[in-house]
Write a structure and sequence with these properties.
Low-confidence stretches of chain A: none
Low-confidence stretches of chain B: none
Distance between the termini of chain A: 45 Å
Largest sheet of chain B: 8 strands, mixed
Oligomer: heterodimer
Distance between the termini of chain B: 65 Å
CATH architecture of the largest domain in chain A: Orthogonal Bundle
Strand order of the largest sheet of chain A: 2-1-3-4
Largest sheet of chain A: 4 strands, mixed
Structural class of chain B: alpha/beta
Shape of chain B: elongated
Largest interface: A-B, 20 and 20 residues
Structural class of chain A: alpha+beta
Radius of gyration of chain B: 26 Å
Strand content of chain B: 15-25%
Helix content of chain A: 55-70%
CATH class of the largest domain in chain A: Mainly Alpha
Number of strands of chain A: 4
Shape of chain A: elongated
Order of helices and strands of chain A: HHHHHHEHEEEH
Strand order of the largest sheet of chain B: 8-12-11-13-14-10-15-16
Radius of gyration of chain A: 20 Å
Number of domains of chain A: 2
Number of helices of chain A: 8
Number of helices of chain B: 18
Mean pLDDT of chain B: 92
Amino acid sequence: MNVAGRYAKSIFELAVEKKSLAPVAEDMQTIASTIAENADLKSMLNNPLISKSTKVEVLNKIFSSTSELTQNLMRVMSSKNREGILHDVATTFLSLKNKSEGITEVSVITAKEIKAADLSGIEAYVKSNTNAKKVLITNSVDESLIGGFKVSFDGKLYDSTVSTHLNNLKKELKLA
Amino acid sequence: MSQIRPDEVSSILKEQISGFAGQASLEEVGTVLQVGDGIARIHGLFGVQSGELVEFENGVKAVVLNLEEDNVGAVLMGASTDIKEGDQVKRTNRIASIPVSDGMLGRVVNTLGEPIDGKGPIGGETVDMPLERKAPGVLFRQPVNEPLQTGIKSIDAMIPIGRGQRELVIGDRQTGKTAICIDTIINQKEFYDKGEPVYCIYVAVGQKESTVKQVVKALEEKGAMPYTTVVSAAASLPAPLQFYAPMAGVAIGEFFRDQGKAALVVFDDLSKQAVAYREVSLLLRRPPGREAYPGDVFYLHSRLLERACKLNSNTEITEKMNDLPEGMKGKVKGGGSLTALPIIETQGGDVSAYIPTNVISITDGQIFLESNLFNSGVRPAINVGLSVSRVGGNAQIKSMKKVAGTLKLDQAEYRELEAFSKFGSDLDAATKAVLDKGSRNVEILKQAQYSPVEVSKQVAIIFLGTTGALRSIPVNRVREFENEYFEVLSSKHKDTLDALGSGKITDELKATMTTVGAEVAKSYA
């Protein structure tokens, strides 16, 4: 387990113990998205030239509305000079939470916009292939796929896009 | 080249395209975190097994060697230039293996079993043989009892090799290690012509491509290629291909062994394989041990050489062999054998280095070659005192066993007294007799490269040597005498040679050899 994993596990177990998983999860969601969207913030946290006290101040200002536990986590992390991995801790925490609740994250990439009815078909397919209780689908569009769709979850991939089929065909014809 | 007919091409295309539809399936994938030095670190691939083959987007394959908490370490079996961070990697659900068929005979292939001699695809019905396979257990084996004739007088007489044995060939550079093994392969032509072939596999690890080419040319010229496969992983190829090459050679040998046939595999050489394995291990961050080799370098060689064995002749038992590949089921026949001749190159005659001691302890004996013998004209430069064969004695044919029984002792005695030979005429008669006999025996055991001698002729000349019948012949003319003696025997006493070759030794045969020897010797005195 890497460093971020250790922090994430500790805060997750603590949140479960104190029965405050929902607010902490919400905090983590905010932290993950804020840092992901803000490249300057990320580079500032990683910058060793900026003093610890400045970083703590900035973090306190941005995430002032978070819960007590989250605040403590940030204090502990900055005291150990680990502000840089805050984003990793947040994402690892969220995946830990999903795992414990039986939620499987699924990413669906399509060539064109997809209808909700089709998504529910994919949801049923994923449920039949995993022991997921709930499926969280994120859908994105990538026109370079030409047609078809790509579903990935749990390190598995169902690839039925026209571009992949064409590539496979190309390989096969080259071999012959 | 004949013109391609358009209809032909499109019909093939149609066939391929119609058989192509609907190939999407649920695949387990991972992404490349880091790539370099022939190693890829991959995230994902949660269900992957150690030793499994994985495939990159561009078709390059890799073997998974490290399973770690948050990543998978794989060694690339091809160029890493087109692989980038973030690339997708697919599981193949297949343990690393190569397709083997009878069509491999006469071909030069790489570690992955692909032809590299430009003679087109390999024909024949292929069977997937795993590179890593557990050796057959005790139940499926049998003691070594058939000889593997090398055609080299000193080996067949004093260090006999049996089918299924592992005999190490060890020595410094330029002492004729490869020459001995190539001669052994060439000598199997006799059995190929008789219809009981010993299939040979020559594995070249980390050698110059030009050297491999020379070996192939020599084998072709001597008519040895029809029953030989050459596996080549040249020095320019990535280290993983080099350290898997002996495994590929053994996998091909097992294909013949399991079908009840005899096979011989030469690893040229295992020191370079160990170096390639060390490179990969260090890049995978496994801790280094003695001479920076990883801790499991002994296991690397022991599991490889254990796969050489003599199988039980009872087909009913061998059919139940452990770890039998799926494709071999139903094809198994008892009594097959796989003989291994690993080569180890020493530095400055130091056999107490790490890899040489390891391999000496694994094998059933060693043939020790020395550069000072080589330079003083004793070729093959075998040091008879240090060379042993622990199991071959049972496999020697009866006539050879009888005739050569005293040869090793005679030669030991000769070497002990050799220092006194400088005193010339001051010696007593007994010492002089030992010296005379010994120096002539040394001449008998000399042999040119690419000229293996049939076992019947070996028995005939060694008989004369051990009985002291060469006393009257000047030392420098012994080899000349030998040639003439062989000529007379094969032209006038074919039946005697045949009898000796079949293992018989009677007083009558002995008398024939003595009289023919004496007759030929007359003109040399």
